[in-house]
Amino acid sequence: MEILRLENIHKNFGVHHVHKGVSFALNKGESIGLLGGSGTGKSVLLRSIIGLERIDSGNILFHNERIDHLTEDQLKDFRIKISYSFQSGALFDSINVFENIAYPLREHTKLTEHEISIKIKDMLKLIDLEGKEHLMPSDLSGGMQKRVGMARAMILDPEIVLYDEPTAGLDPQNTLNVVSIMQQLKARGLSSIFVTHDIPSALSLCDRILILHQGKIIFNDSPLQFQFSSDPEVKKFFIS
Ligand SMILES: Nc1ncnc2c1ncn2[C@@H]1O[C@H](COP(=O)(O)OP(=O)(O)O)[C@@H](O)[C@H]1O
Ligand SMILES: [Mg+2]
């Protein structure tokens, strides 16, 4: 079942045409790997989906309804359903791990303390930080902070998560930890778009690979087709 569709998206910054007719769809439970050189407009595309950037033309549909014209107020509700996991995922320094993850629940739901603590426990297990709820962000390693940031982005049970280079700058072990969390969330039915330069991680998680090049999607096929493609623009991703 299709849950998100981008149709002929165009986006300019002045004379700079970043998107020149981007189209693709995301199905329920699916993970799409979105590749592309630096500055090709991957982050702008993710930001456009949740209305942090306004597209110049084209349609964005969520469950077959246009979302590219939503007002700021409507977008607030909607950003619970599509979560954007920021590159940095900065935590609040002055509150502990529990309160960092609980923050969106307190902002957006009327759950009881007991219900909140059950959800936080489940999340801590998922990110492999059980028993660490009372630590402050400064007590955590960079990799652990990253996982807490992911937990906070997932705590409202979004339908789609947009990951913007979640493994960038991480060492191999922390990269594996992050991808393992993404895999577990996928197993729970979460759909995602995974922007990355990390080809092995994309291949281990994604059902489909897309390549953004010169404002258009020039490749949209299975990981297998991606690996055996003879297209020079596709092969470039293996040489690097
Ligand atoms: N707010 C902005 N104003 C002007 N240009 C921007 C803005 N945001 C992004 N750009 C430009 O759009 C292009 C795509 O940016 P981005 O989506 O961040 O690339 P990437 O694929 O590396 O994530 C870049 O050339 C960038 O300089
Ligand atoms: Mg980017």
Question: Can you tell me about this structure?
Answer:
By secondary structure, the chain is α/β, with parallel strands linked by helices. The chain has one domain (2-239): Rossmann fold (3-Layer(aba) Sandwich), CATH 3.40.50. The protein has 9 helices and 10 strands. The protein has helices at 42-49, 72-81, 97-108, 113-126, 142-154, 172-187, 199-205, 223-228, 232-239, and strands at residues 2-13, 16-27, 31-35, 57-62, 65-66, 82-85, 160-164, 191-195, 208-213, 216-221. The strands form 2 sheets. The chain has a 6-stranded mixed beta sheet, with helices on both faces. Helix 6 links the parallel strand 7 (160-164) and strand 8. Helix 5 (142-154) runs parallel beside helix 6. The longest helix is centred in the C-terminal third of the chain and has 16 residues, at 172-187. The radius of gyration is 18 Å and the shape is globular. It starts with a strand and ends with a helix. The mean pLDDT is 94. Adenosine-5'-diphosphate (ADP) is lined by residues 13, 18, 36, 38-44.
Oligomer category: single chain
CATH domain class: Alpha Beta
The N- and C-terminal alpha carbons lie at a distance of 35 Å
Q: And the CATH topology?
A: Rossmann fold
The CATH architecture classification is: 3-Layer(aba) Sandwich
Q: Total number of helical segments?
A: 9
| Residues in helix, % | 25-40%
Strand content: 25-35%
Which descriptor suits the 3D outline?
A: globular
* Rg (CA only): 18 Å
Low-confidence stretches: none
Total strands: the figure is: 10
CATH superfamily: P-loop containing nucleotide triphosphate hydrolases
Order of helices and strands: EEEHEEHEHHHEHEHEEHH
The SS-based structural class is: alpha/beta
Bound molecules: adenosine-5'-diphosphate, magnesium ion
List the domain count as a whole number. 1
Main beta-sheet annotation: 6 strands, mixed
Strand order of the largest sheet: 6-7-8-3-9-10
Q: Overall pLDDT, averaged? A: 94
